[in-house]
Amino acid sequence: VIGQGVGDPTRIFGTTAGLLEEFSSERIIDMPLMEEGMTGIAIGMALNGLYPIQTHIRVDFLLLAVNQLVNMAAKYRYMYGGAFEVPMLIRAVVGRSWGQGPQHSQSLQSLFAHIPGLTVIMPSTAEDAYHSYIYAAKIFKNPVLSIEHRFLYDLQFENRQEPHRIKNPFQSRLVEKGDDVTIVATSYMVQEAQRAAAWLKENTPVTCEIIDLHCVSQVDSILLLRSLQKTGHLIVADTSWKPYGVSAEICRLVAEHSPEVLRKPVVT
């Protein structure tokens, strides 16, 4: 595990707590301000048989490592005909907090999801993160970027016991069944969608079907279109901007594959 702050007192919102004490500074490596160099080191570790978990306190800082991530990690396997693999996990945090302005509060998932060879996931629960990270480290052989919303760190989750998802935890999942509207959500917006659905169910006859997108770079279009065939209405709830983003990609899939399923325009 390498990154800025992985061993400091706050342990990146508590997500690396206890690791330094258990594994020592030889495996939990606190890095200086060198995002591109740190990513290059992680790529070198992956190429030599190790599995690096690189952590960025903010996804904004990952922009300083774009050359290594986009031109090296994502392309290595393709440039060398599969002779090399770059299995690694990059964790990056999103979600506003006090005193954080335009350079510390962006959600850049669609930017990175646009890159072939880079798998981008956005866990919405602790269980999603756990199974996805185990899968990435033990089975998946390509670089994975996990964008974690800091609001989720303070929540408690029930264990859903979904053994079928352990085989491929990157896939989208049906969170809640409904008949009137499909809500496709990412990350923390899954929690917000569940709150909205609960309120509607209690106060109106409207029921919502909620899909947790989870992997924004590999959308499960079959699950999406099957839901829309039933509800005919679509809301996309993402943490970032609407233009050229996850919302636009969901709309593209519907427009290309089955535009007739929509009874009303999409709401994003």
From TrEMBL:
Entry keyword Oxidoreductase: yes
Output the InterPro entries linked to this UniProt entry.
THDP-binding, Transketo_C/PFOR_II, Transketolase-like_Pyr-bd, Transketolase_C
Query: What SUPFAM superfamilies does the entry give?
Result: Thiamin diphosphate-binding fold (THDP-binding), TK C-terminal domain-like
UniProt keyword annotations, A-Z: Oxidoreductase, Thiamine pyrophosphate
* Residue span, Transketolase-like pyrimidine-binding domain: 1-155
Which cofactors does it use? thiamine diphosphate
- The UniProt record lists the keyword Lyase: no
Q: Name one GO molecular function term.
A: oxidoreductase activity
Write down what this protein is called: Transketolase-like pyrimidine-binding domain-containing protein
Q: Which organism's genome codes for this protein? A: marine metagenome
